[in-house]
Structures are given as structure tokens and as C-alpha cells.
Amino acid sequence: MQYNRILLKLSGESLMGEQKYGIDTRCLESYARQIHEIAEMGIQIGIVIGGGNIFRGLSGTNKGFDRVKGDNMGMLATVINSLALSSALDNEGCKNKVLTAIRMEPIGEFYSKAKAMEYLKSGHVTIISGGTGNPYFTTDTASSLRAIEIEADAMFKGTRVDGIYTADPEKDSTATKFDKITYDEIYNRGLKVMDLTATTLCKENHLPIIVFNMDQPGNLKKVILGENIGTIVY
Ligand SMILES: Nc1ncnc2c1ncn2[C@@H]1O[C@H](COP(=O)(O)OP(=O)(O)O)[C@@H](O)[C@H]1O
Ligand SMILES: O=c1ccn([C@@H]2O[C@H](COP(=O)(O)OP(=O)(O)O)[C@@H](O)[C@H]2O)c(=O)[nH]1
């Protein structure tokens, strides 16, 4: 198999499922099942989840919130989603731990690379919550950073579109999908699937990114088995 250790990034917004806000438990259960399935194959899995289903700092500033406080709220939202996923994994009988980028024991243990590696190597799905712990960043950047730190073979960006397109496929129905794309093409074409800080971190550290549709049950396993269903960034 191509992958021994991966970092899976899950979109907070996708967790809403059909709802307008919050967490759709069916969506959560489907994610937990898919994660358990690949954990049983012996893959070491680190996870970073977004918080966009609950709060985004930048949209908060448009409503009059202070940016730093808004970003702190966003980071706390990622902790809420992480605890929800942890609980769904528990229900699946899948060993897991939640680490937090901001100290908040006993909700989760404070993140360090050493702690994350210890849990990954002992077969725990390791959810790294709280983003980078700093305002002005995104969870895409947090997942790039954690992927590099844990020496993941690749970053898997599980989202609600099935790859990277020439334009946002949710807005432009004529957009066409790439099977492969270079980091530089993402910059040159101005594609908005990931923010530039996250893309740059992956580029500088030679971390491949695979973007795929996580809302289709079974897709995570297919990507692990090397099926070409998403877009690979290299
Ligand atoms: N060129 C593009 N190719 C694919 N998706 C794109 C592109 N541009 C923008 N997007 C958007 O990026 C989203 C994926 O990013 P993600 O971080 O999972 O979502 P969100 O930020 O909403 O939580 C897709 O839902 C899609 O609407
Ligand atoms: O390192 C980080 C990661 C996240 N956030 C905040 O948390 C929110 C939720 O994360 P994100 O928007 O990346 O979630 P997603 O789009 O994946 O749902 C962001 O809007 C930011 O306000 C932050 O301040 N620093």
C-alpha cells in the first residue's frame, strides 16, 4: 500500500449535511464509519476538522466581531466538531484521542508532535483540534502544518466536491475537473479550493494533497487503495 500515515482534513461546513447550521449526525456517522474502515487496514490517521458549520472569524468581523476574538471562536468551533467526531468514533468502536492546540484539559490533551506520534503509533485515530492555535489562519493551513509535523505521506482533503476544478464547481457548471495539478498551477489559475498559505506550506515541504468527495461512503478507502477518484496536487 502507498500510504502508512495520513492526515485527513474534514470540512466543518460539510458536517452540516442538509442542515443550515451545526452537525448532521448522519454525516458524522458516515465519516466515522469510513475512518474506522481504513483504521482497520492499519493506516495511521491524524485528523483536522474545520469549524465553518459553527463559526468563521472572517464572517464574524462583517457582523462587528473583533477579528481575533472571532478567530478564537472559530478555533473553539473546531474543538466542538472534534469532540463530536470522537464520540461517533467511540460508537463505532474505533480507538481515538482528541488533542487541542490550545491548552484546555480535561477536554483534550495539549498537542505536541511527540504526543500525536505516540497515539498514532499505538493505533489511535488522532484528532488534532483547535486549528494552529493562532488567529488569521485556517484549518486548511492547520492540516498542512500537522501533516508535515506528523510526517504524513499525504494530506487527504475530504470535502463535498469530487476534486479540483477549473473554477468553483458549486458556482460554475461548465468547470472541468483535474486528475492531477501542480501547486504552481493552483496559484497561476487563482483556484480557491485551499488558501495560499496552506498550499505554500505543502509545496515547500513536498507534501502531496489529494482532494476528494468525502460525502460518498467508501471514497476514503478508494483513495487509500490508490483509485484515481479525486485530484492529486503535487
Ligand atoms: N477550483 C475549485 N475546485 C474545487 N472546489 C473549489 C474550487 N474553488 C472553490 N472551491 C470550493 O472549495 C470547497 C472545498 O473546500 P473546503 O475547505 O472543504 O470547504 P469549506 O471551506 O466550505 O469548508 C468546495 O466546496 C468548493 O465549493
Ligand atoms: O489556525 C486556525 C484555524 C482556524 N481558525 C478559525 O476557525 C474558523 C473555522 O475554520 P475554517 O474556516 O478553516 O473551517 P472550515 O472551512 O474547514 O469549515 C476560521 O474561520 C478561523 O476563524 C483560526 O483562527 N486559526
From TrEMBL:
Q: Which reaction does it catalyse?
A: UMP + ATP = UDP + ADP
The entry summarizes how activity is regulated as:
Inhibited by UTP.
Q: Does the keyword Membrane apply?
A: no
Gene Ontology molecular function terms on file: ATP binding; UMP kinase activity
Q: Which GO terms describe its cellular component?
A: cytoplasm
Localization in the cell: Cytoplasm
Cited CDD domains = AAK_UMPK-PyrH-Ec
Keyword Transcription regulation listed? The answer is no
Pathway(s) it belongs to = Pyrimidine metabolism; CTP biosynthesis via de novo pathway; UDP from UMP (UMPK route): step 1/1
- The residues that the entry says bind ATP are K9, L10, S11, G12, G52, R56, T159, Y165, D168
InterPro entries under this entry? AceGlu_kinase-like_sf, Asp/Glu/Uridylate_kinase, Uridylate_kinase, Uridylate_kinase_bac
Q: Which UniProt keywords apply?
A: ATP-binding, Cytoplasm, Kinase, Nucleotide-binding, Pyrimidine biosynthesis, Transferase
Q: Which family does the UniProt entry place this protein in?
A: Belongs to the UMP kinase family.
Provide the assembly information: Homohexamer.
Protein name (Swiss-Prot/TrEMBL): Uridylate kinase
Q: What is the lineage of its organism?
A: Bacteria, Pseudomonadati, Bacteroidota, Bacteroidia, Bacteroidales
Q: Which gene encodes it?
A: pyrH
